[in-house]
Amino acid sequence: MTPRRHALTPEALEMMDTIARTGSFAAAARELGKVPSALTYSVRQLEEALDALLFDRRSRQAQLTPAGDELLREGRRLLQQIDTVANRVQRVANGWETELAIAVDNIVAPAALFDLIDAFFTLPSGVGDDTVATGQTASGHRGPPTRLKLLDEVMAGTWEALVTGQADLAIGVTLPGAAFEDIQTAVLGPLRMVMAVAPHHPLAREAAPLCSDTIARHRIVAIADSAKRHDPITVGVQAGQDVLTVPSVAAKLEAQLRGLGCGRLPENLVRRHAEAGRLVVLETEEPPREIELHYAWRRSAAQGRALGWWLSQLESVTTRRALMEQHAGLLL
């Protein structure tokens, strides 16, 4: 260890912070429980190790030099990082994950998802004496110590995020044919998809029920699968059909509201737009498509408290139904 690194101890940084905050060596010495001469000696040792003058000796007050000001600024940042590391180690030891990554398929209702996130952030962490009933801590942290990371995925990309280790939990996945021993799944629920177009779209004037050949003559709006390694899933696009590819359900809805194409959307998302006259639900020879979505997570003997909380919420029928059905507010 170099002399400079040896000199930059948390105690030395705390000393610099106290001197600057109190405005004098004497006041800092009283706060730190030392005599002023001992504090002056410690500062001189630090200056010698860094080969830099930290305080202007010409001033009666503890006036920092530019070098001292830089050390104070960086020292405060380092002390905060040390505290952060110590706190996170304690929290992990207490059962909370440092981070929980959740891959969410774009088809899942965002309002219900953010209701869950809001509920998670109001949980008390149960760590330390500074936690109060609302989950707010004295340091300003709200909720458990686990950082949430949301991954916005589509179709095969949602499953891929889980199996490649990018996510700890995946919500809204369609299961592949092959099983994975280290992954557990549960049913989220069925999602009914209906064909819809804007009232001014040509298909709205066609006689019902529409056959696949009639639909194929018109542009379809499709959401791009976010998978990068796995084979992407393509649903509903017929051979030779013109395609407008968009990145999300919100973009697909907007495109169809503008009459830029046709396509299937969740019935719960379409319903209010149809009632308001912004979309027309088309009767087709092919019945409405129903897909079964799941949620999945990695098996672990040491499941963290954050993942445990999310899985307990997903066991609720009401929660699962909300995630499947609360699309109504999207783009209204």
Give the class from helix and strand content and strand pairing. alpha/beta
For the sheet with most strands, the description reads: 7 strands, mixed
Percent in helix: 25-40%
Spatial shape: elongated
Count of helical stretches: 12
CATH level 3 topology of the largest domain: D-Maltodextrin-Binding Protein, domain 2
Amount of beta strand: 15-25%
Whole-angstrom Rg: 30 Å
Rounded mean pLDDT score: 85
CATH class wording of the largest domain: Alpha Beta
Task: Specify the CATH homologous superfamily of the largest domain.
Answer: Periplasmic binding protein-like II
Order of secondary-structure elements: HHHHHEHEHEEHEEHEHEEHH
CATH architecture of the largest domain: 3-Layer(aba) Sandwich
The tally of domains stands at 3
Number of strands: 9
Given as residue ranges, the uncertain stretches (5+ residues, pLDDT < 50) are 127-140
Give the N-to-C terminal Cα separation.
62 Å
Family: Belongs to the LysR transcriptional regulatory family.
Pfam families: HTH_1, LysR_substrate
GO molecular function, one term: transcription cis-regulatory region binding
Protein name: Transcriptional regulator, LysR family
